[in-house]
Amino acid sequence: MGIVEEAHNVRVIGRGCQTVVLAHGFGTDQSVWKHLVPHLVEHYRVVLYDNIGAGTTNPEYYDFERYSSVEGHANDLIAIFQELQLRDCIFVGHSLSSMVGLLVSISHPHLFSKLILISASPRFINDGDYYGGFQQEDLNQLFEGMRSNYKAWCAGFAPMVVGGDLDSVAVQEFCRTLFNMRPDIALSMAQTIFQFDMRHILGLVTVPCHIIQSSKDLAVPLVVSEYLQQHIGAKSIVDITPAEGHLPQLSSPDIIVPVLLRHIRNDMPTQNDY
């Protein structure tokens, strides 16, 4: 195993000619895909990895300057592809990783056959006639909560984002992976994610995109998925699912797993074609 694979806890499982890369978002790790993976391994080669900063990775690898922008994570993804000698993959990215995938696809389109974007947003802050869902004051309060009492913040943030009470299995799972992160790293990543603006790159994307959106997501309003479809340069499709929450693959696997499998297999109804 190479250095990059070891740092990101890369796992390659399953069998098949087509490779599916699963990339998680903020506050989770590759375990967030546990409901999807069993449906893929019989027919696909599946690559899982952890973003640097996740609680499962060595915190010493987290470079605060490198990860102050999405480019740091994008360079990590390119390094994983290069070390595993991957190309023409189906990329399934959640939240932060959806934008990482978009960014990498601009400079390295040959790495992807398509991008499946779950709970994706190019900007979380409202800006003029753009509605991202948050005001800067909201985020300042969120960051202050992380600074003052990280454990209490996790317990409050997880139910809101997942959609459910604190006792639900999905919320408890997200609490666990959130709390496993080192608080200063979690704050750094949250500041990078919630304050980035990646709207300017959307028109440069040439790889086909499948945008998967929960019908109710506290972090990503429905209009954001419409904005993505209108501004992504490549062919794209939006699939609004009846799932709730920002992590539907964890909270609503019975709904979202069949949807993801359809998009991975490209087994879509005619009326939903690009």
- Spatial order of the strands in the main sheet? 1-3-2-4-5-6-7
Oligomer kind: single chain
The pLDDT mean sits at: 95
- Indicate how many domains the architecture comprises: 1
**H/E element string?**
HEEEHEHEHHHHEHEHH
The helix-and-strand class reads alpha/beta
Indicate the CATH architecture.
3-Layer(aba) Sandwich
Describe what this molecule looks like in 3D:
Keywords: Hydrolase. One of its GO terms (molecular function) is hydrolase activity. Residues 20-257 form the AB hydrolase-1 domain. This is AB hydrolase-1 domain-containing protein. It is a single chain. The protein is of the alpha/beta class and 274 residues long. The protein has a single domain (3-272), classed as 3-Layer(aba) Sandwich (Rossmann fold). Helix content is 40%, strand content 16%. The chain is built from ten helices and seven strands. Strands 1-3-2-4-5-6-7 form a seven-stranded mixed sheet, sandwiched between helices. Helix 3 (96-107) links the parallel strand 4 (89-94) and strand 5. Helix 5 packs antiparallel against helix 6.
Index terms:
274 residues, alpha/beta, Rossmann fold, 7-stranded mixed sheet, 10 helices, 7 strands, 40% helix, disordered C terminus, AB_hydrolase_1, AB_hydrolase_fold, AB hydrolase-1 domain-containing protein
Short summary:
By secondary structure, this protein is α/β, with parallel strands linked by helices. It has ten helices and seven strands.
